[in-house]
Specification:
The complex is a heterodimer of chains A (about 425) and B (about 375). Chain A has about 425 residues and is mainly beta. Chain A has helices at about 1-20, 390-410, and strands at about 30-35, 40-45, 45-50, 60-70, 75, 80-85, 85-95, 95-105, 110-120, 125-130, 145-150, 155, 160-170, 175-180, 185-195, 210-215, 220-225, 230-235, 240-245, 250-255, 260-270, 270-275, 280-285, 295-300, 305-310, 315-320, 320-330, 335-345, 345-350, 350-360, 365-370, 375. Chain B is built from 14 helices and ten strands. The longest helix of chain B is centred in the last third of the chain and has 30 residues, at about 325-355. Classes of the chains: A mainly beta (about 425), B alpha/beta (about 375). The interface of A and B includes residues 404, 409, 410 and 411 of A.
Chain lengths: ~425, ~375
């Protein structure tokens, strides 16, 4: 017995709950009030218009049924009038939908009606002053969502402002609007700027700001911002509507990597020299960045008219070429190397210095060139123009004299 | 061509010999490297010394011509030691001389006052005269008088021994007389050496030249055999404006002589040799001046060497009958010998007073 009591209680509760929420079901009295002549009552897109009240020629008021069309026109519907137990009834039927009006009382200026509906889900009902001429078509809402960003190309760490707007381009009020912003895990939500969006939107050509918030790019790449999704409801129909904005493409650039940068310059202590002279080239190297450069190799290309003589301690001779090899230069490191060359041939030359290094990301190669060095004839070059005997003869004479003097001095020495 | 031997003994003799060789080369510092010696005759030079450093100082005498007599570093002006040293080494010296061939005349140059020169040259001359029959002349350089008693007495004994050695004549040069030749001692020595060297070379040329008026070794012998065996040499240079008679007189004046002498009173024989361009050599003037000289001293040989373009030069060789200057030297030498004797006596006396030290003879210290 006890179990039966509990079951009945639950059933009654559920029936009560069912009856208290949701659309109105069949045989429901939805209106029992006065309606003045020329006014009406709208149920969804059906309009009950009180055309005339009691006239002298009759005792029954003239009540017409109309159905509003989405184009603004209206269609008068057929109805049936019956008289039963001195009660005047007007009935409209369309399929299973049925509106039944009982004229409770009627005067010259107004009537009191009891409006009962069957199998009509009421989304909209209201008395309408002016009746059919003022009734408004009740249709479906259609939200157009737009999602925009203040920039579509950003760097990692940069903040993007996202704005979501909506406008109702349908023909019914959008109600109970709920918006999913479409956050994507590729970005970090930063902050809300504006969140107090309206829960209802009338039909309008103007966009309404629904959301403004900021997200932050966390990694490089090209990402899609998920569409904003709005769910909403009509005033008439109990259907749930959904609208989506377009997806946005955001390009997040690679975070710039700090690299080292080596600058090299070559200067010379003189640009005009004679054959046989020496010339010093000074190679100044500087790491312009606070990033270590590695595997530095500096290779002076020996000019054809010069011969390498000597250089700084750091210079190695590899395959008879002076080469500087350093494992690393710290940030802003500066170095200076000296190379001494001897002018062997007459001509013009400059020193080309090639260098390679790893800037932390890739191998960098570059080169620079010194000023032009002009080599002219040496002071004693003219001697080479004479035949060999010109030199041999005096040498032989000098040697002979020296020998003579030595031999002679030996004769006088004890 | 004459064969001449010139021996320089001791430091002084070595230096004069070196100066002769230098002048023979031409007189320049480097002449020996590019020039041969311009002796008129075949001349052999030998330097003898006990001091190796003195031999090393020589610059113009060949090493083979230097004989070192090993006796430490010189004799310290001790003639007794020197004579013993010569006797010990005379075979070495004479062998060296004999290896150089035959000679017609020899000159031995030395100082009269030093150690090696004064003690070696008299016995050397004596040895030469005993072995060879060519004339041997000594050229002895007298010391500065202020050089000390030992040098003075050495000179006295050395000159005496030289006269007794059989020398064919002794040509004197006096440092005291010539000391104005230089501004300091070294340049004075160099000047004296050069002066003597020039005269000897001139003499050698005169003995072996084709002259306009001939003098020869025989004449020289005759001159040197006159007088007291002591001679000196005079020299003078003339110029184009100076009459040759003046130059001749200059050569026999105190300014031209190597040894102080009153030629007109002390000379016994003379030989006057003139050299130069014929235009400067007036025979009449020469004859007049020589006649004048010969009227005072007796016989005077004269010779003339013609050298075109050369200004006149006169060499005079004079043998002396007597010499006041030498007497003065000997007087000083006697005084020096007495001084040295007195010193010896004083030293001996001091040695007697040293008997003070003998008071402790035979005693030992007690502790």
């Amino acid at each position: 017995m006890k179990k039966n009591h509990i079951l009945v209680t639950i059933i009654l509760f559920l029936v009560t709950l069912f009856l208290s929420i949701g659309p109105v079901s069949a045989d429901e009295m939805i209106y029992s009030e006065q309606i003045d002549k020329g006014d009406g009552y709208q149920i969804n897109n059906y309009v009950i218009h009180l055309t005339n009240t009691i006239t002298i020629t009759g005792i029954y008021p003239e009540i017409d049924f109309y159905e509003l069309k989405s184009d603004g026109s209206s269609l008068e519907l057929d109805s049936q009038t019956t008289l039963k137990n001195d009660k005047f009834y007007i009935t409209f039927e369309k399929g299973t939908e049925k509106i039944k009006i009982e004229v409770e009382n009627a005067t010259l200026s107004h009537v009191i009606l009891n409006i009962e509906i069957i199998d009509i889900i009421v989304e909209y009902k209201t008395p309408v002053d002016g009746g059919i001429s003022n009734a408004k078509y009740i249709g479906e809402p259609n939200l157009i969502l737009t999602k925009s960003v203040d920039k579509t190309s950003v760097d990692v760490g940069e903040v993007i402002r996202v704005t979501i707007k909506a406008k109702n381009t349908g023909n019914g009020v959008a109600k109970r609007i709920n918006i999913d912003r479409g956050l994507t895990p590729d970005f970090t939500f930063k902050s809300d700027i504006y969140t107090s969006y309206p829960t209802e939107l009338d039909v309008s050509n103007k966009e309404t700001e629904m959301f403004i918030y900021e997200i932050q790019a966390t990694k490089a790449g090209t990402f899609q911002l998920g569409p904003a999704i709005a769910t909403y409801y009509s005033s008439v129909f109990d259907d749930e509507y959904t609208s989506k904005s377009e997806s946005l493409t955001i390009t997040v650039a690679e975070e710039p990597i700090e690299t080292s940068e080596i600058k090299l310059s070559v200067s010379t202590d003189k640009t005009k020299l004679k054959r046989g002279d020496t010339v010093k080239f000074k190679v100044n190297v500087e790491n312009l960045k606070d990033v270590t450069a590695s595997n530095i190799r500096i290779e002076p290309i020996i000019p054809k008219n010069l011969t390498y003589v000597s250089g700084s301690e750091e210079i190695d001779i590899i395959n008879e070429k002076p080469i500087i090899q350093v494992s690393s230069y710290g940030g802003y490191y500066k170095a200076e190397y000296l190379l001494t060359f001897k002018a062997d041939q007459i001509g013009n030359d400059n020193l080309i210095v090639k260098w390679t290094y790893n800037n932390g990301v890739e191998e960098i190669s570059d080169n620079t060139t010194s000023e032009m060095v002009f080599i002219s004839q040496g002071d004693f070059d003219f001697l080479a123009q004479f035949p060999i005997y010109v030199y041999i003869t005096p040498i032989i004479i000098i040697l002979a004299l020296a020998g003579w003097f030595y031999w002679r001095s030996r004769q006088f020495r004890i | 061509m004459l064969n001449v031997l010139i021996i320089g003994v001791g430091q002084c003799g070595n230096r004069i010999l070196d100066a002769i060789n230098k002048e023979a080369f031409g007189g320049g510092r480097f002449s020996k490297y590019y020039s041969s010696q311009k002796f008129a005759s075949r001349v052999e030079t030998i330097a003898i010394n006990t001091a190796i450093n003195d031999l090393k100082e020589m610059r113009n005498t060949k090493a083979k011509d230097r004989i070192h007599i090993p006796n430490l570093h010189g004799l310290g002006a001790n003639r007794i030691l020197g004579k013993k040293c010569f006797n010990d080494n005379k075979d070495l010296i004479m062998r060296n001389i004999s290896e150089r061939g035959d000679f017609d005349v020899a000159f031995v140059i030395s100082s009269s006052s030093g150690g090696t020169g004064s003690s070696f040259s008299p016995p050397l001359v004596k040895e030469l005269k005993e072995i060879y029959d060519f004339p041997v002349y000594s050229i002895m350089v007298l010391p500065f008088r202020e050089e000390g008693t030992i040098y003075l007495q050495n000179s006295a004994f050395s000159i005496k021994e030289m006269r007794q050695s059989g020398s064919d004549g002794m040509i004197l040069a006096d440092n005291q007389y010539l000391k104005n030749a230089g501004s300091n001692i070294q340049s004075a020595y160099d000047g004296i050496n050069k002066m003597i060297a020039e005269r000897i070379l001139f003499l050698l040329e005169a003995l072996d030249s084709e002259m306009m008026l001939v003098t020869d070794l025989g004449d020289f012998k005759t001159v040197m055999s006159g007088g007291d065996g002591i001679a000196t040499i005079g020299y003078a240079k003339g110029d184009a404006k100076t009459p040759i008679r003046t130059t001749i007189r200059e050569s026999i004046s105190p300014n031209g002589l190597l040894f102080s002498s009153n030629v007109y009173e002390e000379a016994s024989r003379a030989m006057i040799i003139l050299r130069g361009d014929q235009k400067y050599l007036s025979i009449d003037d020469i004859s007049a001046e020589i006649d004048k000289l010969s009227s005072h001293i007796g016989h005077v040989f004269k010779g003339v060497i013609i050298r075109n373009g050369e200004t006149p030069k006169v060499l005079s060789v004079l043998t002396l009958e007597s010499t006041v200057e030498l007497e003065k030297l000997y007087a000083l030498a006697v005084e020096a010998i007495h001084i040295e004797k007195d010193k010896r006596k004083r030293v001996a006396l001091q040695n007697e007073t040293d008997t003070t030290f003998s008071m402790i003879d035979g005693l030992e210290p007690e502790y």
